[in-house]
Design goal:
The protein has 3 domains: 7-52, Uridine Diphospho-n-acetylenolpyruvylglucosamine Reductase, domain 2, CATH 3.30.43; 57-172, Uridine Diphospho-n-acetylenolpyruvylglucosamine Reductase, domain 3 (2-Layer Sandwich); 178-290, CO dehydrogenase flavoprotein, C-terminal domain (Enolase-like, domain 1, 2-Layer Sandwich), CATH 3.30.390. The chain has 294 residues and is α+β, with helices and mostly antiparallel strands. The protein has helices at 14-23, 36-41, 77-81, 84-89, 91-99, 103-108, 111-117, 124-130, 148-151, 228-234, 244-249, 266-290, and strands spanning 7-9, 27-30, 49-52, 62-64, 68-72, 134-139, 142-147, 152-154, 157-158, 165-172, 178-186, 194-204, 210-218, 225-226. The protein starts with 6 loop residues before the first strand and ends with a helix. It is 33% helix and 26% strand. The chain contains 12 helices and 14 strands. It is globular, with a radius of gyration of 19 Å. The longest helix has 25 residues, at 266-290. Bound molecules: flavin-adenine dinucleotide. The site of flavin-adenine dinucleotide (FAD) has 29 residues, from strand 2, helix 6, helix 7 and strand 10.
């Protein structure tokens, strides 16, 4: 289907982008366009004006500091894959970006667009939730920060208000050995459509016990779902912990009401969560024991 006629503006700064969003009543943000253009072509969404933020250098930086990596919202997957900062400090970001679709999509698609679209099959919302990321939201009243958990509120929904832009994402750099694992169940055996995912993060503290445990599932709830009973079970165990089945059994799968669609039934999704959770925890724990992510 052809795109309807639409106005297009290209601001020179994030302040100008916010001003344009507020001055055009039916304006929307265009980043990589890899989801939005399809949405507009299919007439699922309608904007009269697109404010293109994809060339704003201030939103395309990857910055390193002692505590965090900061990634601008308009940074493409390809830039993340080739960033030495990412590869040294949180390689899971590059590994996950590399799993998204194909090179054409990775050349244009942005981490901010992935988060703001917040399709339940998207790779970054669960990963950033498991990493304890902070989302930086910019509007006419300046910058505001919120956790990834606060940001991802439901299917295709975020906490962004009208006239606000996701400016960047701050990801903590663990100071101790850690492990990160992203395990998708994808339709057709590729990562293109994740029916269910589980992401795990663990750290090992000085006495040799597991801490900062985060286990996050998608495809089974409107937002990335923290499996807190599993996290509590693993927290405080030694680095040699291996009772993955016991940990995962603490989570009440019957409380989940996953959707059924052409890709997977709700029942299948619910049954796959424990399988993927065990795999993700196993991978993250193996990394911690090897000191791989140290
Ligand atoms: C063939 C194909 C396969 C794909 N496979 C996958 C996959 O396996 N995994 C995956 O995760 N994704 C996949 N995608 C989606 C792709 O990752 C998109 O790039 C992503 O969903 C949106 O990013 P974008 O930069 O293209 O954003 P756009 O499409 O430009 O925008 C998406 C939405 O976010 C809003 N938005 C964008 N940036 C901001 C911002 N900074 N602040 C506020 N709002 C903003 C837009 O207004 C729009 O509503 C696929 C896409 C295609 C075409």
């Amino acid at each position: 289907m052809l795109l309807k006629e639409i106005s297009y503006v290209r601001p020179h700064s994030i302040d100008e982008a916010v001003a344009l969003l507020n001055s055009y009543p039916e304006a929307g943000i265009l980043a990589g366009g890899q989801s939005l253009i399809n949405v507009l072509k299919m007439r699922i969404g309608a904007y009269s004006t697109l404010v293109d933020i994809s060339a704003l250098e201030e939103l395309k930086q990857i910055r390193d500091s002692a505590e965090f990596i900061s990634i601008g919202a308009a940074t493409t997957y390809d830039d993340i894959i080739h960033s030495p900062v990412v590869m040294v400090s949180r390689p899971i970001l590059a590994e996950t970006a590399f799993r998204i679709a194909d090179q054409q999509v990775r050349n244009r698609g942005t981490i901010g667009g992935n988060c703001c679209y917040n399709d339940p099959t998207c790779h970054f919302p669960p990963l950033l939730t498991a990493m304890g990321a902070t989302m930086q939201v910019y509007g006419s009243d300046g910058m505001r920060e919120m956790s990834a958990e606060e940001f991802f509120v439901g299917y295709y929904q975020t906490a962004l208000a009208s006239g606000q832009i996701l400016a960047g994402i701050r990801i903590p750099k663990p100071k101790r050995p850690y492990g990160d694992a992203f395990v998708p169940l994808s339709v057709g055996g590729t990562d293109v459509l994740n029916a269910v995912t589980v992401t795990a993060h663990v750290e090992l503290d000085e006495p040799g016990t597991l801490t900062a445990v985060r286990v996050v599932a998608t495809g089974v709830a409107p937002q990335p779902l923290r499996m807190t009973s599993v996290e509590d079970f693993v927290h405080g165990q030694t680095g040699q912990f291996s009772d993955l089945a016991g940990a995962v059994a603490t989570f009440d799968m019957s409380s989940l009401e996953p959707p059924s669609d052409v890709h997977a039934s709700g029942l299948y999704r619910r049954r796959m969560v424990p399988v993927l959770a065990r795999r993700a925890l196993k991978m993250a724990l193996e990394q911690v024991r090897r000191g791989y992510r140290e």
